[in-house]
Amino acid sequence: MFSRSIRVGAVSSDQIEQLHRRFKQLSGDQPTIRKENFNNVPDLDLNPIRSKIIRAFFDNRNLRKGPSGVADEINFEDFLTIMSYFRPIDITMDEEQVQLCRKEKLRFLFHMYDSDSDGRITLEEYRNVVEELLSGNPHIEKESARSIADGAMMEAASVCVGQMEPDQVYEGITFDDFLKIWQGIDIETKMHVRFLNVEAMALCH
Amino acid sequence: MEGTELAGKILSTWLTLVLGLILLPSAFGVSLGISEIYMKILVKTLEWATIRIEKGVPKESVKNSASVGIIQRDESPMEKGLSGLRGRDFELSDVFYFSKKGLEAIVEDEVTQRFSSEELVSWNLLTRTNINFQYISLRLTMVWVLGVIVRYCVLLPLRVTLAFIGISLLVMGTTLVGQLPDSSLKSWLSELVHLTCCRICVRSLSGTIHYHNKQYRPQKGGICVANHTSPIDVFILTTDGCYAMVGQVQGGLMGIIQRAIVKACPHVWFERSEMKDRHLVTKRLKEHIADRKKLPILIFPEGTCINNTSVMMFKKGSFEIGGTIHPVAIKYNPQFGDAFWNSSKYNMVSYLLRVMTSWAIVCDVWYLPPMTREEGEDAAQFANRVKSAIAVQGGLTELPWDGGLKRGKVKDAFREEQQKNYSNMIVGNGSLNSESN
């Protein structure tokens, strides 16, 4: 059914069928999903970063269709591609595969922050994410959100660049810096969606 | 000539049988045991079919309970989910948590699945529930074909006849009773008419109902609340006792029935314009229950049909009227027929057709002890308390979501509460973080 090799990981054909039914439910029996279709998911409405999550589904970098830009609609194959970023790390994988899977997950998150696709998370983009996370609470002023973002960027700078000269400007967090921040910290257990009755059939390619 | 004579003879024998075996016993509330025998045969056949399917299907594809869901959701509260990676940049880690939650919601959300019919674990020989089951054996297919013939050619005409008779008797009977002056005789007669006709209607669906805890049956001057799955709920409850119904005046056949039955006993019907005025509605209902001689009101606080796997938010309006609330839990057995009315997918006529070509409607009704609003409890908390009681008794899951989500979007107030919750956590920890820096 799928000609391209999709890194679906430990998902059985049963589960793909269930996902396909969910896809049809979301798309209203159309072959593709558009951004508006995600408005029908009530649970998603409560999520502060829902616009970023929805955008991530249409991001060309995540869909492996280009270095930037946003697609208008996605088909089921694309849906599975995005799902594959959240597959759990299988114990049967070897070290290299584990590192690869981890890198893919972190790259997905990096793309969520880096909205202009220039390969760096600038202070503005970081502030944007923090503001979204804190949106909806009228008691938190914009200033607090900014100071949280500024503090975090400074910490990131000190990790990645070390001691900075007084007039040195920190351009933004690159993907390598991003990886450096998360080195040694176990993110795998936090960023996966585990299917029930998992039968390990396909592996990461 | 011979043809018409024969047809006439068949029709008359048919009607006599129906009259003798079904209508008369219904009038007296007596059961001849025919439906029990039918149910026994049905249960045996379905058990046999399940065994055949399990033998025929390869081991790997035997599914777990279909209604549990396809992903393992992280049910831990927000604090636990977020705290794991703190210490570093907390926003980065929080994005992990929220993106995972977001994806879980996209793959499977708790609400939308309640607005479609429940999936069965094993096939019940109805085509409409045949989602994943492949061809197993010739014998099974033959039984299925036999089932189709029985359902469409034998059961369906019988049921349609009964339903027709039931509804017409209801309309005629209540109109006749309505001519009498108000007296205890009139109430007794109207109860008799209501009970008989509802029993006929329930038999027209091959309904088998088990009532539990009859001692808690709703009394006069009280309010009866129940979970809502389909319009059939009304008939199911009325077979065991008379209620005053509340609703909007409608047109067509429903309107005729409404106008007829309100002549016999005081139901509460509202015009569409009146429904918008909540105070007016509450006032009229209060007046109704204040009169101890009037029948208990029947209300479905969910406001819409849910698929009988869960109980959704009870609208607090019904609980502001006061009086004693008598909760009732209704649980249908999906193995014999799906009673849920998916109003966005089927209109009333196709829904009735589906129900009448199912095997049977089997359900359990539990009467719960009466509840009243306690001191210091507001209507919403009281509504939740009643909802939990019904959910626990009926074995349904409880959801805080509004049934109105079937057609509308999440209310802003609900969303803002969640976001406030999260932001409080951040600011609390954020200030600590900056202090330690």
Automatic annotation (TrEMBL), chain A:
Per the record, the GO terms for biological process are: cell differentiation
Could you tell me where this protein is found in the cell?
Answer: Cell projection, Lamellipodium; Cell projection, Ruffle membrane; Cytoplasm; Membrane
Q: Which domain of life is it from?
A: Eukaryota
A Pfam family the protein falls into: EF-hand_6
Q: What is its main location?
A: other
Q: Which GO terms describe its molecular function?
A: calcium ion binding; protein kinase inhibitor activity
| RNA-binding as UniProt keyword | no
- Return the similarity comment: Belongs to the calcineurin regulatory subunit family. CHP subfamily.
Could you tell me what this protein is called? Calcineurin B homologous protein 3
The opening ranks of the lineage are: Eukaryota, Metazoa, Chordata, Craniata, Vertebrata
Q: Which gene encodes it?
A: TESC
From TrEMBL, chain B:
Is Chloroplast among this UniProt entry's keywords?
no
Indicate how the chain sits in the lipid bilayer. Answer: Multi-pass membrane protein
> Is-annotated flag, keyword Nucleotide-binding?
no
The cross-references to Pfam families, in alphabetical order and at most eight, read: Acyltransferase
Q: Name one GO biological process term.
A: triglyceride biosynthetic process
Taxonomy, superkingdom: Eukaryota
**Which GO molecular-function terms appear in the entry?**
glycerol-3-phosphate O-acyltransferase activity
Its annotated compartments are: Endoplasmic reticulum membrane
| Coarse class of the protein's main subcellular location | endoplasmic reticulum
The pathway is:
Glycerolipid metabolism; triacylglycerol biosynthesis; Lipid metabolism; Phospholipid metabolism; CDP-diacylglycerol biosynthesis; CDP-diacylglycerol from sn-glycerol 3-phosphate: step 1/3
Task: Read off the SMART domains from this record.
Answer: PlsC (SM00563)
Can you tell me where the transmembrane regions are? Answer: 12-34, 160-180
Gene Ontology cellular-component terms listed? endoplasmic reticulum membrane
- Phospholipid/glycerol acyltransferase domain location is 222-333
Keywords, A to Z?
Acyltransferase, Endoplasmic reticulum, Lipid biosynthesis, Lipid metabolism, Membrane, Phospholipid biosynthesis, Phospholipid metabolism, Transferase, Transmembrane, Transmembrane helix
UniProt lists the family membership as follows: Belongs to the 1-acyl-sn-glycerol-3-phosphate acyltransferase family.
The record's section on PANTHER family has:
GLYCEROL-3-PHOSPHATE ACYLTRANSFERASE 3, PHOSPHOLIPID ACYLTRANSFERASE
Record's protein name? Glycerol-3-phosphate acyltransferase 3
Species, as recorded: Equus asinus (Donkey)
